[in-house]
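User: Sorry, what's this?
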Amino acid sequence: MAQKTEEGISVRVYTFVDDKDKTPDINWWQKFCLRCHQPETTPSSEPLWWGNVFPFPIFPTFRQTAQQICIIVFFLLIWGILFAEIGEPVSLNGELLSMTLLVIASYLVGWIWLKVTTLPALIGMLLTGILFQNLHLVHMTDTYRQLNQDLRKIALVIILMRAGLGLNADVLKKHYIAVLQLGLLPWLVECVAIAVMSHYLLSLPWIWGFLLGSMIASVSPAVVVPCLFRLREVGYGVAKGIPTLLLAAASIDDSVSVAVFAIILNAMFSSGSTTFNIIKVNTPRRGMGQNVTSVIPENKRGQICGPLAIVSSGFMAAYFWEKQGWPVNNNPVSNLFRILWIFFEPILFAFTGAQVTLSALDPDVISMGAICLLSCLALRVIATFLISFGCGLNSKEKLFIGLTWMAKATVQAALGPAALDLVKSGKSAGDTHANEEIYAKTILAMSVLSVVISAPAGAIFIALTGPRLLSKESQPKTIETVESIETIVQENGMSTDL
């Protein structure tokens, strides 16, 4: 830490040297604190007593503390204005205030979770929602149920649009066989396996089992890609372009998952013949897909072309923008959706977690559900190993891809509450209302369970097995100028948010 005084003002610049060739000047606890409290490189007007009372890195720097205090004061000011204008809904016991505090808390917990554990922030956000719901810190009544549902639908729109904007036509054309093999066949195997096992272990009807399977089978680049690029930084998997191949396959996997889930769900909750409903929900309608908000009205009319139109329109836009000189997933529109996702990620995962009441869960559902998930994850690893023939991969790389394909996250959180929302809105899938609510709650519990089990497991498996199963380049690509994982993803022209 360097200090200099100019005209009576203490200006400090924090610098820490952590070089293996030099004796470290900080202990393990300080190194742990540095995960959350980053060194300050910008000079600040710090009081002379600050460093003695609040030593860095145990505490944040003066400048960082001032920023945090300003954010708190700004929030209190906004709350005061809204309370004066709206009244009861934003009072201390108001529903809007409790929902807002849930989102803010989930964002902070997710950030701390990422810094401390290096596991995806979405896990911390999901657990925060569950904690708030079961400690009765958040109130979710019918008054704002539609707002809750619409916010989660908007989050799904952002996911789908970023998936479309992140698809690279050249990569898909060059490696289309490998992409289709890895993106479709393992998904199909796990989807069928989940449907069969949930029918016999969880007593779900076949149609509900396939609805669950189509959702659970989706893999998550949001978990996989950051872990892959940590390996890529030191040269693992670079020679064969494994990160790019996996990300392209995962985009196909997730697009198919969303489409099939929507087909089954809308066919279930529509009147008439199931065959007719499947044809109906795949029939385009006039004016469909003109903007990203199409997913909400189309979902109410029983159509799935809205979500498909969003993915395809994003892909077509990215294709033509690339011809105009914009890199894939690195243009003003992509940057806008990247910013929107910062706000809607905690909304999606916090509200999904807040749908889960632990006291209402059947212990048999949790135990049998865990057995079902773990068995099908193991089956998917084996299936991926056997299916990935002709992709130019050796046995170790095939095993690594199978382990990588375990991670579940965003699609499960976005689609998990969908059936329960329809049941609570009064729609019927043909069974008695009591049975439908049980089935819908089982699907929601399984979606949350899949994220809690598979997301950390996938991240850990990638970190542990990558150096052992992937070949390493002698001279990996240099990344001194890369400022974040997001920048590395942009270089490969892909999206990581599904």
About this structure: DSSP finds 21 helices and three strands in the chain. Residues 168 and 174 are 10 Å apart (CA to CA).
